[in-house]
Design a protein that fits this description.
alpha/beta, 11-stranded mixed beta sheet
């Protein structure tokens, strides 16, 4: 055992004890975070505009601070971007994380000296939790790859600007610098395909032990590695035993990954975003990710089914229930207040509070009142694949409201790496799994409002070509699992 692995196990035990302390006192922990946030921001422009001086409870806060998305908070953010201080948070942000907006073009999310450490600690603690639970730490002596955005940062009115993953690259601890891959020069390559090829060349002869990134882009890396070496990834990297991922559900990719790797590998799921690091998988045995209640973020939750009503109830951590689809609302030490990040979650455990990401509040299909969400389509596909040799690279779902003939239907666009022998039979399996999960969808099928879903095959690399055509290939960009319109699939069909 190396000194590094020995020290990591001791540190992991210490972090575990601290985590246990706050996770066993969730309501008190969140109350303190809330009070600290309000006290710290009283003298900011936002605090003055929303009477923070007289906010003493979460009920006061809910009355005085409305739910906002980026567009609604944008006037304040623009003042920060322009260099003004004390707008949403004391002083100026130290970074602006640039993300892709849907209606507003580029979005600039503030990162402050108070919020940035929590992004780093959460990623670190996720690995330490794994070490504490499993006792495995030898991977720390191998090479680690993090597929991320370019670390080259711009300057915007005295504030450093870049992608979150590129910003985080500047905070890799010194004891991991020698193990980290790819090289700084390769990491700075902007074009994703060029970058992946360079990463393959740099890593293929290295002792890779940890690989991290969004599953769809790691899959692309694995395919290129396997093609170059002509053998499974698990044979090329004999000590590769830990996959760290976030951004999308891993389950639809798991079968394909295990085939590419040639064996099973432990995995850790993360829930990071530019707006905050919200949760990580703290157990290999329990479902869901531990919601980080002690990380400078105050959480509120709105039932997704009530979100678009006039005055939906805002629940705090002590009021949530299992299995309900909630819209996640955050207030943070980066100056985001009652901010809707757009993600929906469900609780899998209340002792401690663990969650899964169920989708996006704007990404659903309800063309006929069925309100199908991402978690349901992902689970249905996974159930249909179970026990077969079928393997899926990528997929998305859209409604077909005006078919040339027959009843409307949900159309599944799937890129297979291993196709089913009978496509219609496979479609029926998915449809059956969907009907079990969603009573509204089942009612529409039974009532002959909809017919059984239809699968349309997508050519190899079709989704990559689509993402490239819209300028979102690689990095932290993700393909929506489903849409309530055909905007994506219409472009996909034209490629």
């Amino acid at each position: 055992m190396s000194f590094k692995t020995f020290a990591a196990k001791i540190f992991a035990k210490q972090v575990y004890k601290k985590t246990q302390k706050w996770s066993k006192n969730p309501v008190e922990t969140q109350k303190k975070v809330f009070q600290d946030l309000i006290a710290f921001a009283k003298e900011t422009q936002f605090g003055k505009d929303h009477n923070f001086e007289n906010i003493s409870s979460t009920e006061d806060f809910a009355k005085q601070v409305p739910i906002r998305d980026y567009e609604e908070l944008k006037p304040y953010i623009e003042r920060m971007v322009n260099g003004e201080a004390n707008i949403l948070w004391k002083g100026k942000p130290i970074y602006l994380a640039k993300t892709s907006g849907t209606t507003s073009g580029a979005k600039y999310i503030p990162l402050t000296k108070e919020s940035m450490p929590f992004h780093i600690q959460a990623a670190r603690n996720a690995i330490l939790s794994y070490i504490h639970e499993t006792g495995k730490a030898d991977f720390l002596d191998g090479k680690m790859i993090f597929l991320q955005g370019s670390p080259i940062l711009e300057d915007k009115n005295g504030i450093k600007l870049g992608r979150l993953s590129g910003i985080v690259a500047h905070f890799v601890p010194k004891y991991l610098q020698k193990n980290r891959m790819p090289s700084w020069e390769t990491n700075c390559i902007e074009d994703w395909e060029t970058k992946v090829n360079a990463i393959v060349n740099e890593t293929i002869n290295e002792d890779m032990s940890v690989i991290s990134g969004i599953p769809s882009w790691v899959q692309m890396y694995f395919e290129k590695v396997k093609e170059k070496a002509n053998k499974p990834v698990g044979e090329i990297f004999k000590n590769f035993n830990l996959f760290i991922y976030g951004g999308v559900n891993y389950e639809p990719y798991r079968a394909k990954f295990e085939k590419l790797m040639g064996r099973k590998v432990d995995s850790i799921e993360l829930f990071p975003a530019s707006e905050g690091f919200f949760a990580y998988q703290d157990s290999q045995k329990e479902k869901g990710m531990l919601l980080l209640l002690n990380s400078g973020i105050f959480y509120e939750f709105i039932k997704a089914s009530e979100f678009y009503s006039e005055n939906p109830k805002r629940y705090t951590i002590g009021e949530v229930a299992l299995g309900i689809n909630y819209v996640l609302i955050i207030s943070t030490n980066a100056g985001l207040w009652a901010y809707n990040i757009g993600d929906t979650i469900q609780f899998t455990s209340l002792k401690p509070y663990r969650i899964i990401v169920s989708g996006r509040i704007k990404h659903f299909i309800s063309a006929f009142g069925e309100h199908v969400i991402a978690k349901e389509v992902e689970s249905a596909l996974q159930e249909a694949i179970q026990g077969t040799t079928i393997s899926v690279n990528e997929f998305t779902v859209a409604p077909q409201i005006t078919p040339e003939k027959g009843l409307p239907y949900h159309e599944w666009f799937i890129e297979f790496s291993e196709e089913p022998e009978n496509l219609e039979e496979f479609a029926l399996k998915i449809d059956y799994a969907m009907r079990k999960q969603n009573i509204y969808y089942d009612d529409l099928i039974v009532g002959k409002v909809l017919r059984t879903l239809v699968i349309s095959k997508v050519e190899k690399n079709g989704f990559q070509d689509y993402m490239k055509s819209i300028g979102k290939l690689g990095g932290q960009n993700k393909l929506p699992r489903l849409s309530d319109n055909r905007n994506i699939v219409d472009k996909l069909e034209r490629i």
